[in-house]
Amino acid sequence: MTPEEQELIMGLVIAPGSPPTRTIDEVLAHFGESDGGALALRLLRDAMERRDSDDVEFALVVKAAARASGEEFLEPLIELFPADWHRDHEDIVPALGRFRSPRTVPTMVLATRWVPEYLDFDEARALAVKAIWALGAIPGPEARQALEDLRDAENEIIRENALKQLARRGEL
Fold it and tell me: What SS3 state is found at 15?
């Protein structure tokens, strides 16, 4: 992706106190696309193939701006999550969580156990907490079992959030 294309996509971002400077339609027109989800998926797959951390972020911006949430994103996001060459784990977990799919349970469990090096400073374990809340919204025995396993975790934050989700689900 060129610097100009990156700048165009960054114009979609809503910053506190200022609206976006670009529209999804402008971005779509530039890339010759009519479907924001298709563009986001193409950009995401390309970034993954090239292992380009910056372009992963830009693809996720397009995905969010286009409000794209189709099933076609599920497998690429599951595949992308454990990669240590990008810094978008905290964006991938909620994106996967919106699927509420039992297929995401192993990824969510990994997100409660693994701390990417760049998040090593985070004593609040925000990534794990996002994953636990996503698990709480996933129906079925796989998610329930994952939460039950997490209530015995060594980390107090993980334990407490797992208990909250089990209680919210009525499974305590």
Answer: strand
The predicted-structure confidence for 130-152, as pLDDT tens digits, reads as follows 999 999 999 999 999 999 999 99
Quick one: 132 exposed, middle or buried, by C-beta within 10 A (0-12, 13-18, 19+)?
buried
Give me Rg for the CA atoms of the chain.
17
Residue 82, C-beta contacts closer than 8 angstroms, at least 6 positions apart:
107, 110, 114
Q: What are phi and psi of 18, to 5 degrees?
A: -145, 135
pTM (two decimals): 0.90
In angstroms, what CA-CA distances link 140 with 69, 143, 161?
21, 6, 18
Two tokens, residue 52? 């380009």
Residue type, 8: L
98-120 confidence digits (pLDDT tens): 999 999 999 999 999 998 898 98
Measured distance CA(142)–CA(58) in Å, rounded:
32
SS (H, E, C) 71-125: HHHHHHHHHHCCCCCCCCHHHHHHHHHCCCCHHHHHHHHHHHHCCCHHHCCCCCC
Q: Which secondary structure element, helix H or strand E, spans residue 41, and what is its range?
A: helix 36-50
